[in-house]
Amino acid sequence: MNKMLNKLNELNMSLRNIVKIGGSYYIALPKKWVKEYNIDKVKLLNIQFRDDGILEIIPLNFGYHEQRLIKLIAGPLLKRKLVAAYLKGYEVIEVDIKEQDYKEILALIEDLQKILIGLEIVEESEKKIVVQCFTTNEYQLESLLYRMDSISRKMYIDAVTAYEKGDVNLAESVKRRDNSLDRIYFLTVRTIRTRIMNPLTSKNERLLLLDYRLLARDLEEIGDIGEEIAYLIGKEKTVCELGGIINEIAKYQHEIVKNILLNKGNRCGNECFEKFQYLRDTVTELRLAKDNCYEVLHKINNILQKIKDIQDLA
Predict the structure, then answer these.
(1) Per-residue pLDDT, 123
(2) Are residues 55 and 73 in the same domain?
(3) What is the DSSP letter of 79?
C-alpha cells in the first residue's frame, strides 16, 4: 500500500475517501489545486463524466481573471527563460537584476521585442524590469499558420534564386524575413499553449492543437533552411536551373498545409505519397548530375523531408 501511495505522489496524484451523506457522495478537493486555480473565487464547477469512466472537474470562473505572473532572476540563461515564459503564456514577467547589469538586461529585452509580438516593458528600475505580454488568445491559428506557410515557401524560392543569380541583396532579404517568421512562430506557439491549458478546451480540439504545434515547428524549420541557403550565396552566378523543381516543391508544401488546415477529415493518400516520391527522386537525380550545386540541393532535400513530416500529419 505504501509503495502505491509513493507512486501516486510521484505522478502528482492522490487518493480521496468517498463520504456518503444521505443519498449524496462527497470527496475533498486537493488543496494545491484549489490554491493554484483560485477555486475559492469560483462559484460553480462544471462536472463532466466521460465514456472511459473518468470524471472531469472544470472550474467556471465567470469572468474572474488573474494575470499569470512569473519572477525571474537575471543570469546567463535569462534570454532562454524569457522566451520560455512567453511561450508558456505568462502575461507578466518580473526580472530581478543587479544594478551593474541594468543596461545589458534592458538591451537584451529590447532585442527580444523584435521577435516576440506584444512584449512591452511596463516598469523599469536598476533593480527590476517588468515586462507584460499584450496579446490575446483570440488569434485565428489557421491564419497564422497560412502566413508561416507563405513566408517559409517564399524564403527558399528567393534563396535559390539569389544563389543562382549571385544576388546578394535578395539573399539579405531572405535573412531578414527569418525574423518575421520567428515572430509569427512564437505567437502561434503561445496561442496554442494558452488554449491547451484552458480547461474548457475539448479533447478533440486539444488533439488538433497538438497537430498545429507540430506544423508550426516544421514550417519554422523550413524557413531556417531557406535562410541557410541564403548564406551560401557567392558573388558569381551559379548555373543550376532549379527554378522548376523548387516551385514544384513549394506548390506541394502549400497543398499539404492547406489539406491540414481545411480539416477535410481525410488523410493524404497515395497521390501525396507519389508526389513526394517524384520530387525526392528528381532532387536525387539533380544532386548526381549537378556537382556544382550539390550543397544547395542538399538543403532542398532537407526541405523536402520536412514537408514529408508535415504530410504525415495530413
Answers:
(1) 92
(2) no
(3) H
Note whether 252 and 224 are within 8 A (CB).
no
Write the secondary structure of 166-206 as one string of H (helix), E (strand) and C (coil).
CCHHHHHHHHHHHHHHHHHHHHHHHHHHHHHHCCCCCHHHH
Q: Walk across the sheet containing 119-124 and list its strands.
A: 69-73, 92-96, 128-133, 119-124
Q: For residue range 254-268, what is the model confidence (pLDDT) as tens digits?
A: 999 998 998 754 566
CA separation (Å) from 73 to 126, 128, 145?
13, 9, 34
Residue 296: all three cell numbers together = 544547395
Query: Do 174 and 121 lie in a common domain?
Result: no
What is the count of structural domains for the chain? 3
Q: Which amino acid would we find at residue 10?
A: E
232 in the same domain as 196: yes
Nearest alpha carbon to residue 218 among 115, 305, 297? 305
Q: Are both 220 and 237 inside the same structural domain? A: yes
Which three-class secondary structure state does DSSP give residue 1? Answer: coil
The tens digit of pLDDT for each residue in 192-222 reads: 998 988 877 888 889 999 999 999 999 999 9
Q: Tell the burial category of 232 from Cβ atoms under 10 Å away from its Cβ (0-12, 13-18, 19+).
A: middle
Query: 17: pLDDT confidence band, cut at 50, 70 and 90?
Result: confident
Q: What is the pLDDT of residues 34-70, one digit of tens each?
A: 877 777 776 677 777 767 777 877 776 544 455 688 9
CATH number for 106: 3.30.110
Q: 95: domain range?
A: 69-133
Same domain, 300 and 155: yes
User: In this structure, are 123 and 147 located in the same domain?
Assistant: no
Q: Out of 36, 60, 84, pick the residue that ends a domain.
A: 60
